[in-house]
């Protein structure tokens, strides 16, 4: 190993791409850090220990070949590194940007646990894939000969898009139906540009469309067609809607003007970034400018709301979370970024009531403490006896997570089996639902989770659909239904 470019973690320190200053980056919605220069990417890749058991890959939902493409990057073989990265992930540049690496690959890096600082896997992944786009190494989607069968996919988020790519590659006619006017799901409308610039998503979508995948947008199953009608139209269906129903907060005053749901707030902000006219933003309802903002929640969506409000020009931004920092579900890196940008976190606190006249005026909150662990091992938050506190507020954003919508009712499909949580019930050996030829994957099956898990499900379910369709009688694919005007 004397001439190996690897295992340089002792002599080469961990070094992420530099972030723009907080004052500069909060003035826009661009990503907060540029990518590596080529030499720096090679140096950071060379720190990889090339472990016999690569825990980074083990803890990656996609089981990406991380040590292998780090070695190729260190050797300057960037095209090969990209091709290996792309072999297991249809969206590596997106995962490189928005995966919580501190909880997945980097958090389980052997040299991180040895005290040398993890290999900067996400930043390298972003570098090699952005380089591939610039150099023209990202090839068009090449479909195998037409099989004469079609698949309808309900939901144009990461699970649906991943499945669409694999199925189209295998020669199926693929139509993706989505209720929004743009494809991408939360990658387009939920995640702010400072984490994922929209051009990064758009170029992937354009590649899929250029490869022959049809997008039926502004299309609502149950309004424009029932699930039964789509089943008659296609040889197989995939339900990949995600979960969009905001989790309720049950305190007095929750219905007051100025108390808004996180996703409504983020969608409005992202639409403005596209240049759309958004009435609820223009009238101030979903615009934080000049307001004292309180965000309720401790996940990544809450962090997105906090950091968006700062960029919109809020007077102050506070985040209330019922546990402490060490026990929050969101990325610690995102918390650090938010603190750098001026957010104030109020740990171990929970709202008891929202005070309002014509609109929200304040949040009354209680102090919390952590009690005994629950079934998952997390310590249960309990209200601390004694006096609470009050925070003045002109806007409250609730970001407590998402539940499944009532799909059997929405889709006019009473025979579609669901769990007691409302998620779609599947046979996990085949990912098929209770309806023959109807499959499901992503958050609508597993509950609200990470984008990378949705991509994994899309990859897996495409293989199950392919296997099932090969056993079916081929018929001529019918034209896709179009959305109502």
What does this structure look like?
- The protein contains 19 helices and 16 strands.
- The protein folds into three domains: 114 residues, Orthogonal Bundle (Fumarate Reductase Iron-sulfur Protein, Chain B, domain 2), CATH 1.10.1060; 160 residues, FAD/NAD(P)-binding domain (3-Layer(bba) Sandwich), CATH 3.50.50; 148 residues, FAD/NAD(P)-binding domain.
- Helix 15 links the parallel strand 7 and strand 8.
- The chain starts with 21 loop residues before the first helix and ends in a 16-residue tail after the last helix.
- Helix content is 34%, strand content 15%.
- The radius of gyration is 23 Å and the shape is globular.
Q: Tell me what the CATH architecture of the largest domain is.
A: 3-Layer(bba) Sandwich
> What is the rounded Rg?
23 Å
Strand order of the largest sheet: 3-2-1-4-16
Distance between the termini: 64 Å
User: In the CATH hierarchy, what is the class of the largest domain?
Assistant: Alpha Beta
* Structural shape: globular
Beta content? 15-25%
Mean pLDDT equals 94
Number of strand segments = 16
Number of domains: 3
Low-confidence stretches: none
Examine the coordinates and then state which fold CATH places here, giving the name of the CATH topology of the largest domain.
FAD/NAD(P)-binding domain
How would you sum up the major sheet? 5 strands, parallel
Oligomer: single chain
């Amino acid at each position: 190993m004397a001439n190996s470019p690897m295992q340089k973690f002792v002599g080469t320190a961990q070094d992420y791409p530099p972030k723009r200053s907080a004052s500069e980056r909060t003035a826009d919605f661009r990503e907060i850090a540029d990518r590596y220069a080529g030499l720096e990417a090679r140096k950071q890749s060379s720190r990889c220990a090339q472990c016999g058991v690569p825990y980074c890959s083990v803890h990656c939902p996609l089981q990406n070949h991380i040590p292998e493409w780090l070695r190729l990057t260190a050797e300057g073989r960037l095209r090969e590194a990209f091709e290996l990265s792309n072999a297991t992930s249809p969206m590596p540049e997106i995962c490189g940007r928005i995966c919580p690496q501190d909880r997945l690959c980097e958090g389980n890096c052997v040299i991180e646990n040895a005290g040398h600082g993890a290999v900067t896997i996400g930043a390298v992944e972003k570098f090699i894939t952005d380089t591939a786009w610039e150099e023209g190494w990202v090839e068009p989607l090449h479909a195998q000969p037409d099989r004469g069968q079609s698949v309808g996919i309900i939901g144009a988020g990461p699970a649906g898009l991943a499945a669409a790519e694999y199925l189209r590659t295998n020669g199926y006619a693929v139509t993706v139906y989505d209720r929004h006017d743009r494809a991408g799901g939360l990658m387009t409308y939920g995640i702010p540009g400072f984490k994922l610039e929209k051009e990064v998503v758009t170029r992937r979508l354009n590649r899929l469309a250029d490869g022959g995948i049809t997008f039926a947008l502004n299309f609502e199953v149950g309004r424009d067609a029932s699930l039964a009608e789509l089943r008659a139209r296609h040889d197989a269906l995939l339900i990949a809607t995600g979960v969009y129903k905001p989790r309720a907060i049950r305190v007095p005053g929750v219905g007051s003007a100025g108390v808004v749901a996180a996703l409504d707030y983020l969608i409005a902000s992202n639409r403005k970034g596209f240049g759309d006219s958004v009435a609820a933003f223009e009238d101030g309802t979903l615009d934080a400018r000049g307001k004292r903002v309180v965000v309720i929640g401790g996940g990544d969506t809450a962090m997105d709301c906090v950091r968006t409000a700062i960029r919109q020009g809020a007077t102050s931004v506070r985040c209330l979370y019922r546990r402490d920092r060490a026990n929050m579900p969101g990325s610690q890196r995102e918390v650090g970024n938010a603190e750098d940008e001026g957010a104030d976190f109020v740990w171990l606190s929970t709202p008891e009531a929202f005070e309002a006249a014509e609109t929200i005026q304040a949040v009354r909150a209680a102090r919390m403490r952590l009690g005994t662990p629950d079934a998952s091992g997390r310590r249960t938050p309990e209200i601390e006896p004694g006096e609470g506190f009050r925070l003045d507020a002109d806007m409250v954003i609730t970001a407590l997570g998402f539940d499944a919508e009532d799909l059997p009712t929405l889709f006019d499909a009473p025979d579609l089996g669901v769990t007691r949580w409302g998620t779609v019930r599947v046979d996990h050996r085949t990912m098929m639902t209770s309806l023959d030829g109807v499959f499901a994957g992503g958050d609508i099956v597993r509950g609200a989770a990470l984008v990378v898990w949705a991509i994994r499900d899309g990859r897996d379910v495409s293989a199950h659909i392919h296997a099932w369709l090969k056993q079916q009688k081929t018929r001529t694919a019918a034209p896709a239904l179009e959305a109502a005007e």
